[in-house]
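Record type: monomer structure entry
Structure origin: computed from sequence
Chain ID: A
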Amino acid sequence: MTVRLIATDLDGTLLRDDLSVSPRTRRALDAVRAAGIEVVPVSARQPWGIRMIAEQAGFTGWALGGNGAQCQHLTTGEVLFEAHVDVAVQQPVAAALAERLPGVLFVSVRSGGEVFVAQDGYAQLAHFEDHKRDPATMGGHELTAVLAEPSLKFIVRHAEWAPSELIMEVRALGLDGFAVTHSGAPFVEILADGVNKAWAVAKLSAHLGIDRAEVLAFGDAPNDAELLAWAGRGVAMANAHPEAVAAADEIAGGNEEDGVAAVLELLLADLPR
């Protein structure tokens, strides 16, 4: 298999649990880039969350954020594409869930992922690790304000319901016009219809003239499953969720054991000299 693009998740995959890029992983990333292979972060994080670790990882080019809802160049700021959840979609979802699950709360991520409009009470449930954002900056808004504009990502959270349960509740509504997933964080993420990491990497690959068979992908969470199944070679981490494992072609070491670096080192060893 010829690899021309590496698409890697960040949290739980490329990054260690302390959100660092290990020296071994950085060396491997630099080596594959030097070999002419494109390396693209593909994350549930928004671009500002990806930029937090970009220098550590040496990311300077295209980045896919919001579970694939946005493609932005980290150096130039150019936006290649964005996909939004329409107001006409998120309003009935919120109304039906609020009736079905009293206490459910919502967030609209807008304006290229820079603006975070959280419903009153959401910040009290949140921790920095959830969104890589200080809960004190989230504010509190009436639901009508949360729902007033389209969202790159529309977040659903409940203090007593796990994401796996919330997803089933969202799907049970019988509504359409959106995609739903979760990344292992304590909330569910609603995206524009058809949007996921595979959709985004496919669009970027087409822009770069790279074939699906030339994509090597890494991931660990349910929101990585479509990408791992789509890529020419999909690698799940040893610490991965069962959905990611089932979608992958193979299993690497865990994120704490530099599993991505180990695969890249073997890839480099097989390159023609």
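Annotation 1: DSSP finds twelve helices and 13 strands in the chain.
Annotation 2: Residues 5-82+196-269 form a domain with the Rossmann fold fold (CATH 3.40.50.1000).
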